[in-house]
Amino acid sequence: MTSIDSIRREYERYPPSGLRRFTRWFTKRIPTRLYARALLIIIVPMVLLQSVIAFVFMERHWQTVTQRLSMAVTRDIAAIIDVLETYPQDASYDQIIRIARERLELNIAIEPPGDLPAPRPKPFFSILDQILSEEITRQIQLPFWIDTVGNSNIVEIRIKLADKILRVFAKRSQAYASNTHIFLLWMVGTSLVLLVIAILFLRGQIRPILKLTQAAESFGKGQPMPDDFRPRGADEVRRAGVAFIKMRERIERQIEQRTAMLSGVSHDLRTILTRFRLQLALVGDGPEIDELNKDIDDMQSMLDSYLSFARGEAEEDVGSVSIKAVIEKVAADGRLRGATVTVSVQGDDEIQVRPNGFARLLTNLVSNASRHADEVAIEATNRNKWLTISVDDDGPGIPEDAREDVFRPFYRLDAARNQDETGTGLGLAIVRDIARSHGGDVTLSDSAMGGLRATVRLPV
What is residue 111's predicted lDDT score, i.e. its pLDDT? Predict the structure, then answer.
């Protein structure tokens, strides 16, 4: 039983808890970029803190102040009612009206008895309407009608007495903490200022990380380091940048040393093979000589394959390449082998790759397919910063359990699908090595044509 099967059985036996399921659900929905996550780390606590402060302020301060103001206004109205009922006046109420206006800052009017207006619709959220109604009910205990709706600075209160109606006009600020919006305005304003400062600061901190990412991606694609790259930002980011530069220098130094060694080995071995050719040429002609010359040709071809794989095209500079031109050339070589090769290219035609390595990658795939199939289809799509090339054929294919093994150097299949022209077993190994040196990869799968599909994906 494979490890995947055992993990699946363990998962079914012990399913994840509710907390773990929520964690997975939440992880899938939060942003993946560092900049967005850092902003969330700042914004979410700020919003929560200010929400709590606003709730406490509304619940405690705003409601308490409004209740005390409404209580005071209601107390003044109750005092006026007591005066009206205790000291009735036959002619007019001028003195009471004057005292209410000058001493209590209330404009009142005494009207003949009648019915109160119909109750107005209750506002969705009005702390004044609620608290003022409660205070009038508690202190006066008479039928009343109030109007607190709208943006008017006046609150109207009508109270039905035994033989008259008391009409009171009070300033809204007398019964309501009307300056609350100033607090909310300051709170929102300071939050926006802090948010802008946080965004500017984070951009400065994230930019060095993005530069380091670009430098690493360029190195993975075999491109030179950006000219303006140098370690910046926080100490940890600077240390990562310095470590990356040193790592790149060590790798480039190792590549140079390996290239120099391979060049020396290649020169020495080719010298020996050339000497063999000269000696055989001096011997003369004959069947044995022809066989020896063929062996030397095979050795020469195998030597080139080994050196090409060991070198990995790493020392080649990046240049601009026409996708269609390279594929058409490779397709023409496949047609010479007797296969029917079709080509389809979509998207931008120009890409930046190592020209020789890119051509060798396609040549190995198409030649491998054309040797074992009658029909080959090459499709290239360059979109969304990725180049995808698929090579389909109608050949015998490769068993699914061996599709990773064929990328190992010198691995051979009975069907010989991993052999290049010299039979060295390095064809697909070279393909994957070149693809990964460009920052991409190559995979094998079943083809709709009935054979094998080789898919190459390269970042461009």
Answer: 86
Please state the φ and ψ torsions of residue 327, each to the nearest 5 degrees: -65, -40
Nearest to 84 by CA among 100, 61, 68: 100
Q: Are strands 375-383 and 340-347 parallel, antiparallel or unpaired?
A: parallel
What is Dmax (Cα atoms) for the chain?
A: 152
Q: Following DSSP, what letter does each residue of 151-184 receive, concatenated? A: S-SEEEEEEE-SS-EEEEEEEHHHHS-TTHHHHH
Beta strands across the sheet bearing 441-446: 340-347, 375-383, 386-393, 452-459, 441-446
Q: Which of 267, 252, 174 is nearest to 218 (CA)?
A: 252
What is the per-residue pLDDT across 311-365, written as a single tens digit (0 to 9) for each?
A: 655 556 778 889 999 999 999 988 888 889 999 999 888 988 888 888 888 998 9
- Among 115, 190, 106, CA closest to 154: 106
Confidence of residue 415 (pLDDT cuts 50, 70, 90): very low
What is the three-class DSSP state of 391? strand
For 238-262, how does the pLDDT look when each residue is reduced to its tens digit (9 = 90+)? 888 888 888 888 887 887 777 777 7
Pairing state between β 350-353 and 375-383: unpaired
Q: Are 231 and 237 in contact (CB under 8 A)?
A: yes
Q: Which of 23, 459, 408, 402 is nearest to 218 (CA)?
A: 459
CA dist., res. 111 & res. 108, Å (int): 10
d(CA 442, CA 107): 87
Q: What is the pLDDT of residue 416?
A: 44
What is the chain's alpha carbon radius of gyration, rounded to the nearest angstrom? 43
DSSP 8-state symbol, 226 = P
Q: Where in the chain is the domain with CATH 1.10.287.130?
A: 235-310
* Number of residues that this document lists for the chain: 460
Q: Residues spanned by CATH 3.30.450 within the chain?
A: 57-178
Which pair of structure tokens corresponds to residue 440? 């991409």
Query: Is 315-459 CATH 3.40.50.300?
Result: no
The amino acid occupying position 441 is D
Q: What is the CATH number of domain 57-178?
A: 3.30.450
The topology under which CATH files domain 235-310 is: Helix Hairpins (1.10.287)
In the chain, where does the domain assigned CATH 3.30.565.10 lie?
315-459
